[in-house]
Structure formats: structure tokens, C-alpha cells
Design brief:
The chain is α+β, with helices and mostly antiparallel strands and 178 residues long. The protein contains 7 helices and 5 strands; from the N terminus they run αβαβααβαββαα. A hairpin with a 2-residue loop joins β4 and β5. α1 packs across α3 and α2 packs antiparallel against α5.
């Protein structure tokens, strides 16, 4: 292998290892202007896009131990067949990337998601697009925090209720006497 290709493979391997999400897409039929629009939308959610040769991508995925060397099952073969671009993100908000891609596919009918790697685990197109239905990371954190605070809020209301009821009763009697 030539030194340029070795350097490129190592660069791709570093990207693959650092990314929490890698999505492989088939961009066949996507015009340059539309592909540029996809890249622009993905940049807004801290996701980047690279068009790669399948051989280099396979070597990088093998080096990152996302696929096994010489693994030739049909799933890996379908991932690395035809024109392939990878979308990668180091951000923790994976649902944001899935939402952008799902909305883009709904708008333009392209690209086709081949599969995705999330924390080194391979997930299908269907499972990846299901992530788009999740709320964002900030919303999930807010929901968990609200759930954790709910028992304390109910306890405070329960403790304050007898005093509040007594105050309401005194107010009613004071209005009747006047």
C-alpha cells in the first residue's frame, strides 16, 4: 500500500475511533447542491461528512475493531458496496443527527442509510432512523430531572397542606363575620 493511502487510512481510523456515531450512506443520485445542503444541515448538529473509498473505510473499521478482519458476511458486504459516504459525530446528541438525516430523506428521498455504528455497535437503518423519534439530549435530561424532583415536590405540598387548609378556613370564617 502506498504511503499516501496508509496516511489516509490512519486519518480515517482516528476519525472512526473518536466518533460516537458513524452513519454510512449511499449518496447515489444526490446532486452536488443537495449534497452540500445535507453537509450544511449536518454541520449544525456537529456532524461531518466524508466520501471514502470502501476499501479504505473497511481497513479503518477493521483497525477500530468495528468489523472483524476478513469478515465477509452479507451485512458488512452491503455496508461497503457502492458509493459510500460516512457521517461522523463526536457529539453526544445522536438523536439530533438522526432527526436531521430523517428530515432530509423525507424532503429529498435521498440518501439511503446503509447502516450505522453507535459506540462501536452496528445498528440497522431502521434502528438508526428510530433514534430520530427520541427527544434531544437536553430534553431527556430535563425529563429525568423532573422525574427525580417530583417526589420531593409532592412531599413539600403534603407537609404544607394542613397549614394551607387552616388558612383557607380562617379566611372563609373572617369573610362570613364581616
Amino acid at each position: 500500500m502506498r504511503t499516501e493511502k496508509i496516511a489516509l487510512k490512519e486519518q480515517i481510523s482516528e476519525i472512526v475511533k473518536a466518533s460516537s456515531l458513524i452513519v454510512l450512506i449511499d449518496f447515489t443520485g444526490l446532486k452536488v447542491a443537495v449534497f452540500s445542503e445535507l453537509r450544511k444541515r449536518l454541520r449544525a448538529v456537529n456532524c461531518r461528512c466524508l466520501v471514502l473509498k470502501n476499501t479504505l473505510l473497511r481497513l479503518a473499521l477493521e483497525e477500530a475493531k468495528m468489523i472483524m478482519p476478513q469478515q465477509n458476511d452479507s451485512t458488512v458486504e452491503s455496508l461497503l458496496k457502492g458509493p459510500t459516504a460516512i457521517l461522523f459525530s463526536e457529539a453526544k446528541d445522536i438523536a439530533g443527527v438522526a432527526k436531521v438525516l430523517k428530515n432530509f430523506i423525507a424532503e429529498f428521498q435521498l440518501p439511503k442509510v446503509k447502516g450505522a455504528f453507535m459506540d462501536n455497535a452496528l445498528i440497522s437503518e431502521h434502528d438508526f432512523l428510530k433514534l430520530a423519534e427520541l427527544p434531544s439530549l437536553e430534553v431527556l435530561r430535563g425529563q429525568i430531572l423532573g422525574t427525580l424532583q417530583l417526589p420531593a415536590v409532592r412531599l413539600v405540598r403534603l407537609i404544607n397542606e394542613p397549614a394551607a387548609a387552616l388558612a383557607r378556613l380562617v379566611e372563609i370564617y373572617s369573610k362570613k363575620e364581616n
